[in-house]
Design a protein that fits this description.
about 425 residues; disordered N terminus; globular; mainly alpha; Growth Hormone, Chain: A; single chain
Length: about 425
């Protein structure tokens, strides 16, 4: 394994790079979460079914079941900086097409294009931060970047309040606001490209860029712990985004009786909390190195949040709090942990493959949740129709928690064997 290099970029250069990547992810997350605030308007004004609304986020994930794994390999082969510019440009085009889509097929094409760029962009960002900051408080800096991304999601959920004039004019103007955020993301990618192109040849990055030629036979030789981490990722995110980013606002309106503004504000607290709490958990990982126990702690709150929501009437606030803490905790540990189980030259592939399988889960969960709502007749007149969706997400949450426990047991066993081999106490 290659050792981190002693030289580092100047502090101002590192700060500029970090600002660029912050804009990249803030704009990207706003674009993804721009559908949920207009979901009820799409249903009312364009007569979209819940299955169609779910499909707008599911189709975002569909191409990435395959393409994002390829994108990870391309990051390893052609550098993160080139892929950053390409993918943010594609996201911008997708956001424009979505805003133009007065019919479902055109809007779906826009979300498809946005998805093709967006998920590979997430891989690019993670690899870029690892290359610049691995061994330099990487978990904390990654968590701070993730917090700024969550700020984009928070702003999307709060947009019915601060951009209420746009929503009063119909479903389309809010989606043009999302285009503006996509443009900011593209500008951030250009800034990162310029800085990385300057610094990489100087040898100042924490991890050297991958070799020009890849050893293809080694690409999928990941440890079993990596695959458990993938299972945690797939099950956890198959709950978080299909619920919070697709159906939660509509559910809170129709099943809990909240207004659009109140529902979107409550839903936004998931990401508002993450903006502040995620860096704390990233720093905790840097200081303790206890990856598996921290994963289990973060995952355990997710099934609890759905149990509270399904069993106790009027518990939307408590459930949202539990979900928000889980969403702050687990991602701050999950993504930096990949570095632990992957060689630097295969980091893009490891993140790409994990994100590809994550998107398979997102696609399936969005469609299944929408189907369950439609077949159960979920609506304001029949709020009990949302119960099957809640149980579906609750069981997926439990699966994520169980996967973290298995990973914890395997990590503990590995540590015991290493101690025994070194002649220490067992």
């Amino acid at each position: 394994m290659q050792q981190p290099r002693a030289a580092t970029p100047a502090f101002a250069v590192q700060a500029l790079m970090y600002v660029g990547m912050a804009f990249v992810m803030l704009g990207n997350y706003y674009g993804y979460d721009s559908i949920a605030p207009v979901a009820e308007q799409l249903s009312r004004e364009l007569h979209f079914s819940d299955t169609q609304i779910g499909t707008l986020n599911a189709i975002y994930s569909l191409p990435n079941i395959f393409l994002v794994a390829v994108g990870g390999v391309l990051v390893d082969r052609f550098t993160a900086r080139r892929l950053a510019v390409l993918t943010t440009a594609l996201c911008l085009v997708g956001a424009v097409v979505t805003a133009l889509g007065t019919k479902f097929p055109l809007m779906a094409i826009g979300r498809l294009l946005f998805g093709v760029g967006s998920e590979t962009l997430a891989v690019v960002t993670t690899v870029a931060l690892a290359q610049w900051f691995a061994g330099r408080y990487f978990a904390l800096l990654f968590a701070l970047n993730l917090s700024l991304a969550r700020l984009g999601s928070y702003l999307a959920d709060r947009s019915p309040s601060f951009a209420d004039g746009l929503y009063a004019r119909g479903w389309q103007p809010p989606l043009w606001l999302a285009v503006g955020f996509a443009l900011a993301s593209f500008a951030g990618a250009l800034l990162y490209y310029w800085l990385d192109r300057r610094e990489a040849p100087r040898g100042t990055l924490a991890l050297a860029p991958p070799p020009a030629r890849l050893d293809w036979s080694q690409l999928l030789s990941f440890r079993r712990e990596y695959w458990l981490l993938v299972a945690v990722c797939v099950t956890f995110y198959s709950v978080i985004f299909p619920f919070r980013s697709t159906f939660a606002i509509k559910y809170l309106q129709q099943a809990q009786g909240l207004s659009l503004s109140a529902a979107s504000t409550l839903n936004s607290y998931v990401f508002l909390g993450a903006v502040f709490a995620t860096p704390v958990f990233g720093l905790l990982l840097d200081r303790t190195g206890r990856n598996a126990p921290l994963l289990a702690a973060g995952a355990g709150l997710l099934p609890l949040s759905f149990m509270v929501l399904a069993v106790f009437p009027g518990s939307a606030g408590l459930s949202t709090t539990l979900l928000g803490v889980s969403f702050s905790f687990l991602p701050a540990v999950l993504w930096p942990t990949v570095v632990r189980y992957s060689a630097p030259e295969h980091l893009g592939t490891a993140y790409g493959l994990m994100t590809a399988l994550q998107n398979a889960g997102l696609f399936g969960a969005n469609v299944v949740a929408g189907y369950l709502n439609d077949t159960s007749g979920a609506s304001a007149a029949n709020p009990a129709g949302y119960a099957p969706m809640l149980w579906f997400f609750g069981l997926l949450s439990l699966a994520a928690f169980l996967c973290t426990l298995v990973l914890w047991v395997r990590d503990h066993g590995t540590a015991v064997r290493a101690t025994a081999a070194a002649g220490g106490p067992s």
